[in-house]
Amino acid sequence: MRAFSRSPGRGPRQRTGVNAIPLGRSTGESRNDEPVDDEEETQVRLWVLHSDCAKIIGRQGRTLREIEARCRCRVKVSKEELMDKETKERAVDIMGSSREQNAAIDMVLELSQYCRDDGGEVLKDNRGPRDTVPKEAREDLGEAGPEEKRRVIEVLPEEVGRLLGRKGETVKIVEKDSGCKIEIDK
What we know:
Layout: E1 6-7, E2 11-12, E3 42-49, H1 50-57, H2 62-71, E4 74-77, E5 89-96, H3 98-111, E6 114-117, E7 122-125, H4 129-132, H5 135-141, H6 160-164, H7 169-178
Antiparallel strand pairs: 1-2, 3-5, 3-6, 4-5, 6-7
Helix pairs in contact: 2-3
């Protein structure tokens, strides 16, 4: 019994399959004998709103993997526990060449409402006026005080479930986004 077969005149048989596929970049030349762009890989840190991170990551990480595949760089979103408590921002680290980073930054900007670089320069800000000023600062400015306005909106009985959402999720989202307290009478 032979460990490998030999073809007459060709030497040992070439390996095929997954193990034969070289991974990563080859140094010096590509498959087409063209020089490979040997740009140095660096890291860029962006800061995005916590609420935008779900869009950037996507369901089961699909959007994040798509960004990585299209831009050929590594993207890492910081965990929720590491979020800046005051600004409600989370870090997005992008590792790759400058061309790859710029492509990934463009994709992150498309998905987010607010984004700034690590130096503090705002790259995108599509937030509404309530989102830009923290609640404590609004109270200092007198925009929210003890004499808050109360508005009553009547909803048809068959639409109440739609307003509440499953386990009250929709009401919680509206309260969080608007900064208002919603009370529903039975």
